[in-house]
Amino acid sequence: MPRGSGGAGPGAGPDGGAEGLLSSLKRAAAALRDAGVEYALAGGFAAYAHGAAVSTHDVDFVVRERDVPAALDALAGAGMRHLESPENWLEKACDGEQPIDLIHTPSGRPVDGELLGRAEEMTVGAVRMPVLPATELVIMRLLAFTETTCDFSGFLHVSRALREQVDWPRVAAETAESPYAYAYLTLLARLGVIGPDVL
């Protein structure tokens, strides 16, 4: 059962941590919806909606690159400010101290209508919104592994929590060119999270 309607983790105060991020997530989602910007929740909170542990890092949305200006305008209209980002695959906003990422080209793969069309309407913090499916979340995360960002530990609990919802053969096929994704899937197989036939 999705965990998105649950409370924040221990020690999260009303102005920070998981509760503060969840409040900002709901405000941002409402602003994007009201502005007619097509989006989907991604990252840690999307995994949370599917049953993983709550994220306390940031809020991630995927949008088409052409819709980024409208998305930033919508967030500004809700009192959020635009932050300059050194990365060329996302734009950043901030709701008070809460960071919000608008991702348009994750791992060099532009967000398009096909990806957004696969989003599932789910309840996150008592609010209905489009959320990327578990399979898309795993593909996106595995393709983000590189030689300098190859710490698997943070994603292992997510993989365990979502494993029944993930199309692992599709994950293997779409990440086949990445040696880091292959290494991660090999680790999952050795740990018994996925079957050895996936590789």
Query: Which term fits the overall shape?
Result: globular
Which structural class best describes the helix and strand composition?
alpha+beta
Q: Characterize the biggest β-sheet.
A: 5 strands, mixed
Mean pLDDT across every amino acid position: 91
Number of strands: 7
Instruction: Describe the strand arrangement of the main beta sheet, using strand numbers.
Output: 1-2-5-4-3
Q: What is the terminal-to-terminal distance?
A: 28 Å
Question: The CATH topology of the largest domain is what?
Answer: Beta Polymerase, domain 2
Q: Share of helix among residues?
A: 40-55%
> Ranges with pLDDT <50 over ≥5 residues?
1-15
Question: What's the CATH first level of the largest domain?
Answer: Alpha Beta
Radius of gyration from the alpha-carbon trace, in angstroms:
16 Å
Protein name: Rhodanese domain-containing protein
Domain Rhodanese: 27-55
Organism: Actinomadura spongiicola
Descriptive report:
The protein is globular, with a radius of gyration of 16 Å. It has helices spanning 17-34, 43-49, 68-77, 113-117, 134-144, 153-162, 168-174, 179-191, and strands at residues 40-42, 59-62, 81-83, 90-95, 98-103, 120-124, 127-131. The protein has a 5-stranded mixed sheet with strand order 1-2-5-4-3. The protein has a two-stranded antiparallel sheet with strand order 6-7. The chain has 2 domains: 1-132, Beta Polymerase, domain 2, CATH 3.30.460.40; 133-199, no CATH class. The protein contains 8 helices and 7 strands, in the order H-E-H-E-H-E-E-E-H-E-E-H-H-H-H. Helices cover 41% and strands 16% of the residues. It is an alpha+beta fold.
